[in-house]
Automatic annotation (TrEMBL):
<protein>
    <submittedName>
        <fullName>Uncharacterized protein LOC113873811</fullName>
    </submittedName>
</protein>
<keyword id="KW-0732">Signal</keyword>
<dbReference type="Pfam" id="PF24068">
    <property type="entry name" value="TPD1_C"/>
</dbReference>
<dbReference type="GO" id="GO:0001709">
    <property type="term" value="P:cell fate determination"/>
</dbReference>
<feature type="signal peptide">
    <location>
        <begin position="1"/>
        <end position="22"/>
    </location>
</feature>
<dbReference type="InterPro" id="IPR040361">
    <property type="entry name" value="TPD1"/>
</dbReference>
Amino acid sequence: MATVFKILSAILFLTLVNKGSSSCSLNNINIGSTRSGREIQGKPEWNVVVINNCSCIQRQIQLACRGFQSAESVSPSILSKEGDSCLLINGNPLSPFATVRFSYAWDPPFVLVPTSSILGPCS
């Protein structure tokens, strides 16, 4: 009887672990940009919202940001450029359903796309 209980417990545990890890992907990191209406040094300002639409923490979020530049400074604690990649919030965890916001000024706007992240615990 104890062996059956251990096997059922192991199956339940593995099912929960598998469900938590497979329920999130880069598709759950949504990025939206809207024009603020302001201009900085003659360039339109864009407000960016990054949302973790997942029940799991995601950290070390990398975005493709080839050629990214801005006429207004973006805090490196929010977005730090490393070559053609940008690291979001210094790689710190973005909680489930949390957002990160920043603004930049450039024309044309940049298409920021998540390229990688590390999944953490799920709620």
